[in-house]
Description:
By secondary structure, the chain is an alpha/beta fold. It is about 20% helix and about 25% strand. The radius of gyration is 21 Å and the shape is globular.
Amino acid sequence: MTAYDPGRLVPMTTHVPAYAAPAAHAPLERTTVPRRAVGEHDVLIEIKYAGICHSDIHQARDGWGEGIFPMVPGHEIAGVVAETGSGVTKFRVGDRVGVGCFVDSCRTCEHCLRGMEQYCERGATGTYNDHGKDGEPTYGGYSTHVVVDENYTLRIPEGIALDEAAPLLCAGITLYSPLVHWNAGPGKKVAIVGLGGLGHMGVKIAHALGAEVTVLSQSLKKQEDGLRLGADHFHATADPATFETLAGTFDLVVSTVSAPLDLSAYLSLVKTDGALVNVGAPEEPVSLNLFSLINGRRTLAGSMIGSIAETQEMLDFCAAHGLGAEIEVIPADRINEAYERVLASDVRYRFVIDTSTI
């Protein structure tokens, strides 16, 4: 795909088809966006599938602050290597690969040197809605191709279909990281709040880790799904009796919801020395009665995706346990419809764009 200046044989930027939001709250539309030339340590990826994350909607609608437009969302990318730079050693043409929520970091701060690039002190470079080190905007996976440094590219094992693998690059690692960090496993009682794009992967992964898993959902309408995905128990949070019955039950509660919760109520479900970990990011501030923490020496925490190494570990874990996302594959011309359905909780459990339709 690389284009060259015929006079100098210097690689030039190439434009590729994409779907972009031209402005905040505007419907996404078909367009083209620039991709940089393949550098020495870059891989050109032919994108096959791109997941639709709730984060895409937040950012395309300025829910988390002012965005960079036109915006091509998408940080759940699965595809195949189409070209490699001269210095690439990790991948070859034809390899199955993925890209998650960031495509670069400073590489020199304490966190980067410790292999925790997601917490880069200077800020990891987002796959979209950000600026790269060259000062140019980054564009995400709702497109046909992307160029990424090999060090920020993941290998997708053969045991996972590419369409089911795409959501693992955000939803999978967003749940895997806190579950592993807070030692979910045999003998531990884990609750997943919300059974959506994030939560359904939390249930699958926590079950595979060996924990006793409970789903806490607003109603019981997804109970059958929750049990099928690996939950041992399912409770409706709209019923006040749930909080009385389950008080002090869980070693770990992971909240995946992107709306403000009554944190004190959910902390009451946590055992002494247990933790309530938030991976959902509401647009509005939340409040907390600190006695909810003091009583029981409980921890209120947050977690954000994972490092490149941990994301690769998650992909290998999912392949070994036969885990993929529950998906609905759609053509690109249904992206705007899919956004509205996500907001209405009308998807089980992740939309994935077939990028051949862009």
